Amino acid sequence: MQDEQKCSCSCGGNEPERIIFPCSGQANAGQITNLAAIRLTEEGFGKIACTALLATGEEDLIKRAKDTGGVVVLDGCPMNCAKKIADANDVPVSQHLIMTELGITKGPSKSYSDDDIETAVSACWEGKGEKNSE
After folding, report:
1. Is 95 helix (H, G, I), strand (E, B) or coil?
2. Cα 101 to the chain's mean position, in Å?
3. Coil vs helix vs strand at 126
4. Cβ contact 67:97 at 8 Å
5. Calpha distance 100→29 (Å, rounded)
6. Which runs of consecutive H residues, i.e. helices, occur in the chain?
7. What number of CA atoms fall less than 13 Å from residue 26's CA on the CB side?
8. Shortest CA distance to 78 belongs to which of 27, 38, 118, 122?
9. Using CA atoms, how far apart are residues 30 and 98, in angstroms rounded to an integer?
């Protein structure tokens, strides 16, 4: 059986495993969080997880989030729904980004571009919103 904790990419494998919780809200800003989390997963930044499942209090996910190298929360707007869900489950957040604070204007769900997604992805890689940088 393959050990799922080991990095399977060729980028070094010494990076801490991160879990990414996008708010996945219905507005464009929420949709961007989900698409950015998928891209970040593909790029090896971390692994996307289901924020709705976290909201249910699913014990295995909460334990995994508490034991991981870092929890990244991507919220679309200042309502901070995903951050509130993490806080309600005592999941420590190491990096929190709000799309509207990155210059993305909240609007209809399909109102986003590849540049908007790249803005969110780049902000994660640059360490914006990290707990130590606030």
Report:
1. strand
2. 15
3. coil
4. no
5. 7
6. 28-42, 51-55, 59-67, 81-88, 114-125
7. 0
8. 27
9. 10
pLDDT at 131: 87
What pLDDT is attached to residue 61?
A: 97
Quick one: pLDDT at residue 6? 47
For the range 11-15, what are the long-range contacts, defined as Cβ-Cβ under 8 Å and sequence gap of 24 or more?
11/44, 15/44, 15/69
Distance CA 41, CA 36 (A): 8
Q: Could you tell me the two tokens for 34?
A: 């989900």
Which H or E run contains 91? none
H or E element in which residue 96 lies: strand 95-98
List per-block mean pLDDT (blocks of 10 residues) for the chain, which spans 134 residues: 46 72 97 98 97 97 96 98 98 98 95 97 97 65
Distance CA 16, CA 38 (A): 18
